[in-house]
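Weekly structure sync, notes
Attendees: PL (lead), two postdocs, one rotation student
Agenda item 3: pending single-chain targets
PL asked that the sequence for the first pending target be pasted directly into the notes so everyone works from the same version. It is reproduced below exactly as submitted, 412 residues in total.
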Amino acid sequence: MRAYLDLLAIPGVKRLILSASPGRLAYSMINLATFFFVQHTTGSITVAGLATGAETVASSLTAGIRGQAIDKYGQTRPLSIFVPGWVTLLIILSMQHTTAGILIVSALVGLSSPPINLSARPLWRAAVGAENLRTAYAIDTTIMNTTTVVGPVVATAIALNLGAPTALWVTASLMCIGGIAMITMPLSRKWLPEPTTSQVRDLLRNRPFQLLAIEGMIFGIGWGVLEIAIPATATLNHTPHLAAPMLATLSAASIVGGLLIGGRKSDITPLRGFKVASAFVAVTSLPLAFTHPGLTMGICLGTVGLSIGFAMVYHWEVVEAVRPAGSATSAQAWLWTMEGSMLAAGAAIGGYVVEHISPTAALAGVTLSLLASSGFIWFFAAPRLTGADKQLSDIQKVDALADLESDIPKSM
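Predicted structure, written out during the meeting:
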């Protein structure tokens, strides 16, 4: 606790935390705010899934480009373009009444996603110095993950009690506040990108990176189905108010899992940990198709989330062990591009399956995807990721924790 108090006493730290938090909260609200608005406007869960999928795929496919923009131009110029664009488009989305208009504007919202976390992460090194980075990343990760628990609850409460368009307006307002805070922060305005190596340009040709990208795409499909299947199932069961608690349970459990593993002292290598954790994720999801929004689904999602928290830590340790030198930001951004594009596809598929087949079929599809992801890791990727089958250095562990803080969909 003393280390955290000492960290908060460093000039600029409190402002960095407060500046980044509203934008992160906006990102944690956008999926459900969009889902409830589109479902209310069109009466179709399928269209709601397509709209959230359009946002996600557009955001993910351009994540690498936004990361490169920050590396080239610094933070002020990209944020000054993306923040007002995103806010304006959310307001425009709240005025749409046709399916075509909703899908087009949703895609544009994704394209203009402000790079909040890609901007916040490198500022910690400048703010606290290398000797305090692990503590800084730990507190920042906890704060950011807290928004992923609170955001869905807030979005659902606003949408159901004050109206679906209001949820979009509040989301836009939070991003506006956070964006202005980041843009005007001296630490951000003075930040200069670090030189990158020529290997960054060859990242997509890197064999270990390709394997991790494929695994992320397989996982992303299932996760996308899950993110839509939960609110869709709750809506069809006439309990839409349970969607947020179910998603919050999943997020909260993943935070606990990440904190438990992140603070461990163990001789297990990143690769071994990733293999075992991925198997736990798949196994704990087996009962999911037989649950309903409420206690049974909450328990199942809690165990899945705990396993996901374990897997996230080991995943980023594997990335740190095998990525090319000088590619930390690019690797993070491009992996999200790959995984996020499939997450968007999964969201669209999930909405269709829930509405036209059954919620049970969609939840079963989540388990199949997670089993396929674990199988790919065990039988195909692991034998080719031997560079991760050894202990990381202290610096690599700190960088892996930094990557973990951004390993959340739509946290660009």
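Discussion points:
- Residues 13-42 form the longest helix (30 residues).
- The radius of gyration is 20 Å.
Action: rotation student to compare against the earlier draft before next sync.
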